[in-house]
TrEMBL record:
The lineage of its organism: Eukaryota, Haptista, Haptophyta, Prymnesiophyceae, Prymnesiales. This is Methyltransferase type 11 domain-containing protein. It comes from Haptolina ericina.
Amino acid sequence: RCAAKLSADLTFLDIGGGSGQYGAYFYMQHASSTTPPLVVRDLTRNLVVSSGRVRGQGPSAWMTVDGTPGIEEFTRNHGPNGSAVYHANLCNASLRLPVHDWVMSLEVGEHLPTWCLANYLALLHRSNRRGLILSWSQTTTGTCHINHKGTNQIIAYMEALGGYLPWESTCAKMARHPWLRRTIVFHRRAENDTNCASTTTHTQEELEARS
């Protein structure tokens, strides 16, 4: 809900968005009142999303990408409206995605190998105009968590890339899951930084050194 409010009338890119459930949620904010409710699974229970729950507070356009093989076919054939996902290799240094106002990437980085992290962070950086909504697991207890990072370390990474300020948002406190409340950070671009399409890249070693 907070992502919908933050990106109201703006554009939104979900990187590593799985099966596109945020896209389906955004679709429901623009749907007519006669649209049947959407039921999605949230780890332990079903959530019912009614149309127009935060009407006028969703993004004007959104896009979801994920690296799961077959994700495009699956979401187009089996997903609800708005959930279509594009396949992309998030570790590919040459990957260029359309620039959006806000970029979100939740619980993705901890699943990526170390050699990929600099490419992934550079992708987040060059794909947004206004800022990032980013969470990164701090533990190895989750499935395939091979690269956990502390929140302060992630903030330092973004500062090393340049132009980001960690932004205290009540949205973080409203996260449904305790682990998400601990890890989610809103990184807003400094007002004088418009270099969203920068091709500047850093190696993982450079990011570590600068953080």
